[in-house]
Write a structure and sequence with these properties.
The structure is a single chain. This protein is mostly helical and about 110 residues long. About 75% of the residues lie in helices and about 0% in strands. The longest helix has 24 residues. It is globular, with a radius of gyration of 16 Å. The chain starts with 5 loop residues before the first helix and ends with a helix.
Length: about 110
């Protein structure tokens, strides 16, 4: 098997290359059970972890979708933003809010394509 350049790997990720996505999925197996948290708390903690490093919109798209299925409300999501703002800073929270809006736009675009 030939070694791929970083550009080829990133291109594969951007185009939904199955082995890359499968590897990403494998990293998350059993993490909720191993955390000892209930499902809603688990998703709220993950949201906070996405906000802190200024994650990409697609990360919010995936994680907020799972959180919604677990019954996490928009009010609770807003509560996470409020709770961590003093720790991560207003600029990070504002950036995360923009990423969430872009993620929601991506989600709508995906729905329209189906």
């Amino acid at each position: 098997m030939a070694t791929q350049t970083p550009e080829q790997i990133l291109d594969a990720v951007a185009h939904g290359d199955a082995p890359v996505l499968e590897q990403l999925a494998q990293m998350h197996i059993d993490t909720m059970e191993n955390s000892g948290l209930d499902e809603r708390t688990y998703h709220l903690v993950r949201l906070a972890a996405l906000i802190a490093p200024d994650s990409a919109p697609v990360s919010y798209l995936v994680n907020l979708g799972m959180a919604r299925k677990a019954g996490v409300s928009a009010t609770e999501v807003q509560g996470v933003f409020t709770a961590i703002a003093p720790i991560v800073g207003t600029a990070r929270v504002a950036s995360a809010a923009g990423s969430v809006l872009r993620a929601l736009g991506m989600g709508e675009a995906i729905k329209k394509q189906r």
